[in-house]
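Notes on consecutive records. When two proteins share a document, each keeps its own sequence and its own token line. Never mix them. Below: protein one.
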Amino acid sequence: MTVCDSQTLNRTAPVRQNLLTRGDRSALETVALLCGLALLPVITALLASLIGPATARPASTAGKQAPAEKPAALPGRTPDHGRAIGRTTALTATTRRWTPVAHTTVTLNKRGAYEVTQQVRGQFMTAQNQFTRAWITSRLFNLTTGAPVEESNLLVVTSAKRPPGTNRGYGTTATGRIFLDIDEPTTIRLEAMQAWDAGTVTKSQVISDPNGFTKILYKELA
């Protein structure tokens, strides 16, 4: 038997009064409706216990950003890459003549785009009692096509005019980088040139030792 408390009876009082004053309802209908109203709080409580309270967000995580997930590593092939460390090479005494730098030949094995870097250490001596303006330039040479690589010329070291009676050496290291697109395996090498347009250069060379290496590096991009 269902027992109704005073609050429930008070809430259903207007309904009961309305049902009792209407003459078009049978006694059986009236009793059924009153029982249904009396059972409403019980049904509501039962449904609430089945559904359960809504899960609240923990206070400790409020306002905090969830840690980003690390992207999974994409499977793929290893890019073609490598280097060649040169050896000290004497440059020709004839102005503006290119000389291959020893041990600086590399082969790009795959079709695609490459980043190629040249690091060159150059040094030369100017003649005494002469005004001398001279410089060393390097470049990349494509042995596969038999032609210089475009836009690869790099000014390594230069001198200003010096007054007579001065004998001076010049030396420094320069680095240059280009992007090269190839359709087939391609072999390239590093070359250097001593040049002057005034005076005389007495000694010129590309140097590679622990104090400063001359080298060529390459890395496949795509």
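Protein two starts on the next line and is unrelated to protein one.
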Amino acid sequence: MKAIFRWVPVASSSTSHEQQPSVNQPSTPVEPQPADSEPQSVAPRRAVPPREPTPRHPYRVYGYKLNNEWFAKFAKDHNIGKPHWGAGGIESGVLGYLTLRLPGFQIHFVDDHASDADFGYSICICLATNWNRKKLERAASRVSIWMEILGTEEKPRWYKPTVETIPPIPR
């Protein structure tokens, strides 16, 4: 059996003008305790609060679905873009314009097989999601602002986004 020593430095006297070298002296050996004995001074473990679980219901977004015709009309009405811009340039210009004006702006892709959308998807700019109650409560006060900026009379709707745009963590 091997003895375990704890080394403690010896404090030197501060009143003495002589410098004494500090000497490490071994303390009394500490005997290991058997595995079945109870430790004498163990602090109780604190319970860790559980993490908020990810919602089990399907992810939905609350907003407006925008297709290529809407982007072209909005760009023309607001004089965004140049005549030689294609659909991608117009879309980027309109989204840049809207980013500065719409509070709480998020982009998701939604299935849109009914229209001539690119690859069967349309862009959805959304106010909130069903995974974040705080944003959903704030969305009610922002609907009138969004309707005015987008130039529409219809209210936002719920959409199911594509799997690629669903975040792993609720936001």
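For the record: The mean pLDDT is 75.
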